[in-house]
Specification:
heterodimer, A: alpha/beta, Rossmann fold, four-stranded mixed β-sheet, B: alpha/beta, 6 helices
Chain lengths: 478, 232
Amino acid sequence: MKPRTREFHDSARRAIENPALRRAIATANESYMHSRANAVAGLPEWNELRDRAAFVKDEALDRLGEHLAALEERIEARGGAVHWAEDGAAACGIVLEIARKAGARSAVKSKSMVTEEIGLNAALEGAGIDVVESDLGEYIVQLAGETPSHIITPAIHKSRGEIAKLLHEKIGTRAGADIPEMTRGAREVLREKFLRADLGVSGVNFAVAETGTLVIVENEGNARLSTTLPRVHVAIMGIEKVVPRAADLAVLLRLLCRSATGQSITTYVSFIGGPRPPGAADGPKELHLVILDGGRSRLWSDRRMRSALRCIRCGACLNFCPVYERIGGHAYGWVYPGPIGSVITPGLAGMDEARDLPHASSLCGRCGEVCPVKIPLPQLLVANRAREAEAGRPGPPWSDRLAMKLFAWVVGSPARYRIAAGLLRWFLRPILGARPAARMFGPLRAWTRARNLPRPAAESFHARWRRDPAQRAGGKLP
Amino acid sequence: MSDGAPFRDRLLDLLGSPAGRARLFEPLERVTSSSTARDPAALRDRFSQELLRVGGEVHDLTGAPDLRGALGEILRGLVPSSEGTAARPQAAFDRDPVWEKLPEPSALLLEAGFDSVDVAAGDSRAIKKLAGATVGITIADLALAETGSILQLDRPWRARSISLLPPVHLVIVPEGRLLGGFEDLFEAAAGHLGGSSGYMTLITGPSRTADIEKVLTIGVHGPGKVAAALVS
């Protein structure tokens, strides 16, 4: 996929000005946060599991070459073929060659971010192969001619009304169909495609080096169908997906599913070691594993950034990110949105393409707190910013720098902060009147373009805190 | 090896690690898990509770006097008879050797009002047959109390898609195959994962999605109804 990260400022502004999008993402994030919190509460050993997961991912990364070689050896021992791709173009070339040799005319895909990254659909279509996304969200996004906006729920930016209209036009479900009806309609169309497809394409969630096992996690059953019915299965993974032992999955699966959807486990987890054994009734006759570098070895070689390769693509850092919540996934301009995207995109797609992304964060730190593999995301964002500065790239304009210096001076002492806050209250309250201002003029216009400027409270937080010991004891303010 | 061989060598060279270090895959100590039930009753309870929570059905037949009658009743409950249609629903079953200790499946199905579909090992028409069946009946190789999951290994007597293509999946869980947590599961399955096929699948309740507005919807690509029958 071609990065559009250079347009970040414009696309972010357009997203902020789209209230329907903001509402859709806010609702989804609330549901995500709620279900994750419930799931984590049921597991007292949560933090111990996070430590262990970080440890085993680091173990795999520290001896990445050996682990990958072990994985290759075991898959090949079962008759699977392992292919190595330096970049997206090479990976697409490998898949096309597999398809050509197999005489494949149609392909079904299960959800995979890495295939988005390499632009596989366009490559297959260019070679005249009919390719269909089979995850419901991905299918919707494909029918709409769009790209996924979230790692786990690709069509999160679309309302059910929009989707009903789309499916009515494209596959003939009833106009105004409800969600179960739409789901049934998609199931019927896709079932036919599954039964006819020559090629099944999937991603990989974990690849176990010790046993040579590809692990695929999903809820719908489309990944199982994609890896069971077509005669050829092509699995594509980044080099960072390898984990040492099967026993490590006990920890990683618990963390991934709870962080991604709040489930204790997804409906299906497939463990694949090779093509179907001789005499089996079903399963692919050929298994190909494509191992993609795609800039990951560059991240790996940089000791400051290596921990970003622990990522298990759960999406939790998106769901908890205040910036993502306001601009959605598309604004980031490439495959991986949110904090993890802002950390790895500069490495994978090149810093020149993505220099704005590390700044798309308030550094509030929630992403680092929820990350199941303890990637220090805020620190890595700062490291990417530092690299920009070290490279002597122009920083923000002088007005921004002056404003930040002034702000730093004001908040540098409690007395200065109180005086400044008092002055602002005294100045803004009469201007703003009773309601928040929807539109300001002069330098404040940028502020109100996509949000209201609220009227400051009559009494400051500090004053209230001093005045009312009862509220202070309860820790609650009305 | 095929494509990209020079790149492979360059990459592994770059990622290579200094020689003389400890052997790979040294086992680690288990993280203390809160899912450590061991006694059969506790395992049964947790398994049922978890499977019910994700929308599955559980029937405890461990003390049932008439297993055949009970299984038939479950099947009729899963597939409500459609009045006026002449064709009987089709049910496929695997050929797990455990069936020898259970009621004979084709007679059971006949009695319950189903036509049985025979999918023999290596049947080249397995997918076609299973795509037309309403129910797939399997025996669980292992089951997991922590999550209410059942595990199916690659077995010569069972097509992979028997638990996938039919809209209803009935799985028979012999009580002795219940395990506590994931640690136990991966320990028990380690040999199979490293073995000649290496394929297995873990199934937890009915197929689901929340891709439209995060609204939970049951029965997308896989079975929309999953029932487990616990037997002794």
